[in-house]
Amino acid sequence: MKSWSIGVVGLVALAVFVASSYGPTEGLVAVGILASAAVGIGWPHFLAVPAKKTLATVIGLSGAGSALAAGFVPAPGFLDATPAFIAAGVIAVFVVQLIRGTGQAQRLESTLGSCAGVLLSCLGAGWIAGARFNGIKEMVLVAALSAAVALLAGLLRWPDRVVAPLGIVAAGLVAPLAGLVFSNIAIVAAIVVGVVIGSVLVSFRRMVTLRLGRLNFQAVLGMGVAPVWAVGALCYFIDKLLIY
């Protein structure tokens, strides 16, 4: 599959996350579990590492547990359980590598890459926490619009040295405009959200351009969902630090 299809998958996933945030919490949690499963299945394929099924299970279950906790723990500690699920997932990754034994192919790459996958899968619970935080959805919408602009910039078939600053600047400009139109979020806070989210997403585009070989459907699915899902934590923490 073509690399631009990753951006399309990311846009679809982003739309689903935002739409779900305006429904009941249970629906958003269900979407979070599916997103974690998508990251778990696709991330090992994108990395092209061995033991894909086992690592997919570890990554997916870690993210699903984090999403469940974020949806049902009492306020205000929506993400209090997330570090525990990250730690459990990382430990499980090391256990898998120990079981594989010494001398196995791509052992270091598999360990480091899978730990990163666990982190991405668990951080997506921030979308759920952001939707529950004070019951206010404006920051979720502002963050989503910023992410959408960065993803659209990533679809351009231009060099990374052009697309990267373009995506960051565009996301940083759209965020305050969206904040003024859809809410009373402070301009500075909105700019921070846009720039940070834009920077993260264009960084993942660089990972795609550096990867050699063709991408199968699982790799496109995982790489399309993972960064969009993970920036939910950025949205939530910036909301708490700069607005609340």
Short description:
This is Permease. Keywords: Membrane, Transmembrane, Transmembrane helix. The chain has helices at residues 4-21, 25-47, 52-72, 82-100, 107-123, 125-132, 138-154, 160-182, 187-210, 217-242.
Quickly list its features:
single chain, mainly alpha, 80% helix
* Beta-strand content bin: under 5%
- Gross morphology is globular
What proportion of the residues is helical, as a percent range?
over 70%
Order of helices and strands: HHHHHHHHHH
Number of helices: 10
What does this structure look like?
It comes from Arthrobacter bambusae. This is Permease. The chain crosses the membrane at residues 31-48, 55-75, 81-99, 111-130, 136-155, 162-179, 185-204, 216-239. This protein has 10 helices and no strands. It is mainly α and 244 residues long. It has one domain (4-242). Helix 7 (138-154) packs antiparallel against helix 8 (160-182). The longest helix has 26 residues, at 217-242. It is globular, with a radius of gyration of 17 Å. It starts with a helix and ends with a helix.
What topology does this entry show?
Blueprint: H1 4-21, H2 25-47, H3 52-72, H4 82-100, H5 107-123, H6 125-132, H7 138-154, H8 160-182, H9 187-210, H10 217-242
Helix pairs in contact: 1-2, 1-7, 1-10, 2-3, 2-5, 2-6, 2-10, 3-4, 3-5, 3-6, 4-5, 5-10, 6-10, 7-8, 7-9, 7-10, 8-9, 9-10
Keywords: Membrane, Transmembrane, Transmembrane helix
Organism: Arthrobacter bambusae
Protein name: Permease
